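Q: Convert this sequence to structure tokens.
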Amino acid sequence: MSRRQVSATDLEPREWLRRLPKCELHLHLEGTIEPETLVELSCRHDAQPLTLEQARALYQYGNFLEFLMAFKAVTERLRTPEDYELITYNMLRSLAAQGVVHAEAYISFGIIYFIKKLEVEPFVEAIERGRLRGEKDFGVSLLWIIDAVRHFGVEEATRVFHKAAELRAKYPSIVGIGIGGDEARGPADQFRELYAEAKAAGLRLTAHAGESVGAHSIWSAINIGAERIGHALTAAEDPELLEVLAEKQIPLELNITSNLKTGCCPGLDLHPARDYFHGGLMVTLNSDDPPMFGANLLDEYILAYEQLEFTLEQMRELAANSVEASFLGPERKLELLRKVEQFGW
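A:
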């Protein structure tokens, strides 16, 4: 039997990259809402529904704090469990079209609790309905990382992480926890005890760090036990930190276009993704909030190939990294690694 049905010489690079099996490890469910879906949500809930033009305008911002406000304006239209089921299903459909075989998506219990003042169980039931339908229809596996918005404070994070541990028994797709939001107002070291409790409860640990503040934030994330680091943009400031990241092979969830659009990185030529890769760090590419940044995971792969001059073989290595860095079990990992390794030969 032939090792592969597809040869690299048979496809244009963009199509090769689309078909390359890959995982998306840094993706916020609430940030996957397309303007067209936002209009649909607005028609469900707003007395004066948004037009498509008005919806698209909500995705415009000038800096990181304005992005957080734009994100808030979009998530305000998420009001019922059915809304969450809709966006989960739509997310998996979009991922499948990009050649994604597995995703690990953040969902913010903090927004449901702190802003909407609602209990999360009906919403978890809804995203599970969307996940099961989407996995069946599109063949993309999905795990959940429960996100506590760090600047809501430790008390709110405690509620979020305890609920995640409680629900994990019923929903094994809840695999881990993380802290997003404004790093400056929610230093990682405040969550040390909570991370220890989450680990003891069997949850995997991630943390956004080094996106909008310095390398000290990444050190803090490592010190509280984070197994993967989201963004890690400012690690480039600290040679000792780079050595530790390379030595320990702590996976980095890089989000290049996100960093550019939020202004956290002033230009593509200054983004450290290529240096990280050639420095032996465990680099993965991710999209963060695709419609808000105008780039999905496939776009990130194309950007790395066309503008950062990664070779196709290096793109395969990035895809393999995304599998290795996932929180999947060993059997599924081996299955996906074989698909990546055999693709294009």
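The longest strand covers residues 100-108.
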